[in-house]
Write a structure and sequence with these properties.
246 residues; alpha/beta; Rossmann fold; 2 domains; four-stranded mixed β-sheet; PurE_dom
């Protein structure tokens, strides 16, 4: 709720002066969490719930407050057990098991621009789905282009035109992370690389892919943390939003 709407609700008698004063602090105190109610005004996107480390009661409490404050609501890293419970508690929401995300009140897409999400292998898809669900929740069109890694590079070329027409590309790969350098050399839009922890021993749970991506010789490539599909989608959404404003 922005400040003008807040004052309007006080004027209409929907909020007391005390309730309005509490909301003007910019956060909602729950004891176990301080919910940032003004993040969208500052950053363009609302607060997101990181589910790991929070118990079900805490997540339900946070969602209950956010439901009155913002759209959309996204909770990431939600286990299947917590996801089913959230779905029961908030039946108008959706739990995406592969992405481990719970979504309530998503933003509807308002543009034909899209984010291309490209994976090297099928094993990278859970990270890709976290990115895809995040991007879609924020109102972006998404094209999923999965399992097109360098071991069979003709698969990539078969989808190259779709990738090149995206406003931003997220490339997700484990092993040695080579796919991002190939894609980065074929597109004229920003590329966000996501290293994954997929690979044999010397992949070192994603460190090899991370270092390979950081050392990419392709220009226009930026890199997020290992398995951070959410972070890649957040940045891609900001870029896509700028493209839509042109």
């Amino acid at each position: 709720m922005d400040k003008k709407e807040l004052l309007r609700n006080v004027q209409l008698g929907k909020l007391s002066v005390e309730e309005a004063a509490e909301k003007l602090t910019g956060f909602n105190e729950l004891g176990y969490a301080k919910i940032d109610t003004q993040r969208k005004e500052r950053n363009g996107f609302p607060e997101i719930i990181y589910g790991e480390g929070k118990n079900l009661e805490q997540i339900i409490g946070i969602v209950t407050v956010l439901k009155e404050e913002q759209k959309p609501i996204l909770a990431t890293r939600i286990s299947s057990e917590k996801g089913r419970a959230l779905q029961d508690t908030f039946p108008d929401g959706s739990y995406f098991e592969l992405a481990r995300c719970f979504v309530l009140q998503p933003v509807q897409p308002d543009s034909e621009t899209y984010i291309a999400i490209v994976t090297a292998g099928t094993s990278d898809v859970p990270v890709a789905e976290e990115a895809a669900v995040t991007a879609e929740t924020f109102g972006n069109q998404v094209k999923r282009i999965y399992d097109v890694g360098v071991a069979g590079i003709h698969r990539l070329f078969a989808r190259l035109e779709e990738i090149q027409q995206a406003s931003v590309v997220i490339v997700i790969a484990g092993m040695e992370g080579a796919l991002v350098s190939v894609v980065g050399g074929l597109v004229d839009v920003p590329v966000i690389a996501v290293p994954t922890s997929i690979g044999y021993g010397s992949n070192f749970q994603g460190m090899t892919a991370l270092l390979g991506m950081l050392n990419s010789c392709s220009s226009g490539v930026s890199v997020v943390n290992i398995d951070n599909g959410f972070g890649a989608a957040y940045s891609a959404s900001m870029i896509n939003q700028l493209r839509r404003k042109k």
